[in-house]
């Protein structure tokens, strides 16, 4: 516990206050930025800045030319740091009782300017790790010049208070009969789809991929014919070169992209669906040459019912009937049935796509029926979809047959 002081003891609503060290640290660690309050020449200043906690010290990031950092030289700078996490908006029947659910921390004290290079480096590393665990080893460390241009304040966490509100609506009994909606609108900070900078060719790091369930994890898989790795925008140019042929796209729901940018848009759409939890896309690489040759995905992912579909597959024509598609499906089926515990895997294909239907049947899947006017084609017409499926009871025999087929197919460069 932090000891209450005259400055951290409120005049009202004391039931909302806490001095719990663990609760204070949790708020500071969850928040990415804080408000730094101080005075300069008798004038109040409040600046937003980044922070990170190491033990019982709060470090604040700044520039060597900023006012608080200049003022901190010598005996230090008296500061007030506040952090607020907004958890929800509270709607009452009366305007007076509207409120918010939140968790906040106020820390008071004298901040010192960090001059030790090792301490400054440790702070900057911790700050980068806070953004994403593992990022400090996945980026260039600061140079000596950059360290010299960066200023850091250190505030010992001694005078600290936590204030929070949780729960529902609190209003007068006389208002309960009013015909207005009342309740709580929960709020939370959620990450969007990462947007790579121009010229980036490195794949999206695992720590920036949305964490969901093992069913949503594009785990890398490797065989003698094909490697499956998480699809990324960095694959777009190679994917375009490998699949830029009308026959490859004929029965897909997307028209043949005429430029690499069009294929990049297709990849971006797949990644957006992955971010929403609707799809798990992989790129297919030739195991012999390492070349990108196609893509495939899980979709209709339902961990509760233990089922998944395989599709959104397209493969460059030179690699048709080479064992790549068969082995890719074998890897995806093995992951679904043997690792994820699926009881059913499905496929969907255009009724007019006889080649795809024959390929699915060769996998050992059972034709279950036709879904009429199921999806739209790229030209706007409606397609009838043939649905296939394989169950966990059928998987052992199907696996034996697929492995036997692959043994008769030598990997092709």
Automatic annotation (TrEMBL):
GO molecular function, one term: acyltransferase activity
Entry's EC annotation: 2.3.1.-
Gene3D superfamilies: 3.40.630.30, Electron Transport, Fmn-binding Protein, Chain A
Keywords: Acyltransferase, Transferase
Domain of life: Bacteria
EC primary class: transferase
InterPro entries given in the database record: Acyl_CoA_acyltransferase, GNAT_dom, Pyridox_Oxase-rel, Split_barrel_FMN-bd
Domain called N-acetyltransferase: residue spans: 237-393
The name this protein goes by in its record: Bifunctional pyridoxamine 5'-phosphate oxidase family protein/GNAT family N-acetyltransferase
Protein species of origin: Micromonospora vulcania
